[in-house]
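Format notes (please read before filing issues)

Several people have asked whether sequences and structure tokens are stored in separate files. They are not. Every record keeps both together, in the order shown below: the sequence lines, then the token lines. Line labels are part of the format and must not be stripped during preprocessing.
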Amino acid sequence: MTGRTAAADAWVRYRRTARQDGLVRALTLLCETVGDGRPPCGPGGHMVVPAGVAGADAGDVVTTVTVEDGTVVALRPGAEPPSGSATPWAAWALGVTCLRFGLSERLLDAVLAHLGGRTVGDAKLLHQQMVKGGVAEAVIEQLEIETMLAGATPGDLDDGVLAGLNAQITETDRMLLRLLGAVSFLADGPGQVARVSELIADVHFGSARAGEHGGAA
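Then the structure lines:
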């Protein structure tokens, strides 16, 4: 395994952890390994972190959300990180994108399991033409995202590309949620995770991002 291949594989683990173990486990891993225990704030001065990572004196909590594997909080930190401990933006941005893609794959798994277990008449819902078309469309979007992220290391994809990929992940998740129907609104279901994932994208890749992180790699 070459040095570059090994470096790229390190980013795959965030995607893999998100797909296999869920949002909180993957986000905790990202904070511990890339964020040095504290992720960077988005352009608006906010961050989204697992409750266990935030700590009691993390700052002003904007909202708390319980998902299938734990609790996350959106907050505005009360203090700047110590000098020299700021998280490199390029590393964090790629990690967040890989993590969100893994969550999107996990959502697809949930959709397939849900649709595969339901029938209309004598036919599985998953085999209906409109449903099959919706799933295929989402899969195509995911394949495009996977192609862009394959082998990427921090700095390979600029902010504009990563922002575009995150927008594509969000739209793909929305396609999948429509296939889940009412199940997507359950507080402990995959829809809640998708909404937190979208919140993470909004925090770090919102409209104010342009120029804010440029050169901060």
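For reference, the curators noted about this record: Residues 90 and 217 are 5 Å apart (CA to CA). The first strand starts at residue 47 and ends at 50.
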